[in-house]
Amino acid sequence: MMSKLRQIFHGTRKQSSKNPSDDTFRRVYFNNTSSIKLTTSTYESSSHYNVHPEHLKFGSNFVSSSKYTFFNFFPKFLFQQFSRVSNVYFLILGILSFIDPFAITQDAGKFGLIITLTIVIAVSAIREIIEDFFRHKEDRRVNGAPSVILRSIELNDAQCMDRWDGVRVGDVVKLTDSEQVPADMILLSCENSDGIVYVETRNLDGETNLKQKICPKVVSDECSTVDQVLKIAGYAECE
User: Which ranges form a coiled coil (predicted)?
Assistant: First the structure.
């Protein structure tokens, strides 16, 4: 089955002068026997599953749109604020107001610029904290979304529920109608006899019109059922 799947994915590929070992190629394996065990905490239990060693160099599916963490907020925020010319200008004026030869006002008036600048920065900090709080909240929602993955768990082939941030390169994901796609994917099979599915990419490019994606018949014939998908082994090369 491995050699047959290799022919399926490479038989229709145009000949290229590039070396397959070139960095421009990425080889993605699925259900391959040359794998190692990793531990994952799924929705059901903590289990062992196989992952190809080549996939360890790829990043995870974890999504992070937040700007700050608890530890880097103040240095990162202050650097951002004082990268603005206006804030630096008022900071310099505030410092000079405490030096007598350059002081514009006397006594309590010396604190005017510093107090004003502090209030402006404090309001900006509160706004950034609130906005980043909602970014963290949205990240947790996206990363924690459930997904059905077909993978070999503890030597048994099974469908398991895992979080989106638990999806790895080479996983075979089962999607249902109107379900969001957790990562970039290759379409293997679908229920439509013509092999056509319709995808909305509004979250990526803002377009609401449906786009057609077609399953190659030679691939869909080998992946028409869950049992077939769990038994196949192969790889796909991406340029």
Answer: none
Same structural domain, 150 and 234? yes
Contacting residues for 110 by C-beta, under 8 A, at least 6 apart: 97, 98, 103
d(CA 83, CA 100): 27
Q: Could you tell me if 115 and 194 are in contact, meaning their C-beta atoms sit under 8 angstroms apart?
A: no
Domain that holds residue 79: 73-142
Distance CA 237, CA 10 (A): 8
- Domain-ending residue, one of 97, 122, 142: 142
Mean pLDDT in order along the chain per 10 residues (239 residues): 45 45 68 53 45 73 91 94 92 82 63 88 96 95 89 61 84 86 86 85 83 84 79 77
Neighbours of 167 (CB within 10 A): 19
pLDDT value at residue 15 = 42
Domain boundary among 120, 142, 164: 142
Number of domains forming the structure of the chain: 2
Question: Do 112 and 226 belong together in one domain?
Answer: no
| Whether residue 111 sits in one domain with residue 153 | no
Both tokens of 10, joined, read 């490479």
> Is 52 in the same domain as 101?
no
Could you tell me the pTM of the whole model? 0.70
Q: Are 164 and 142 in contact (CB under 8 A)?
A: yes
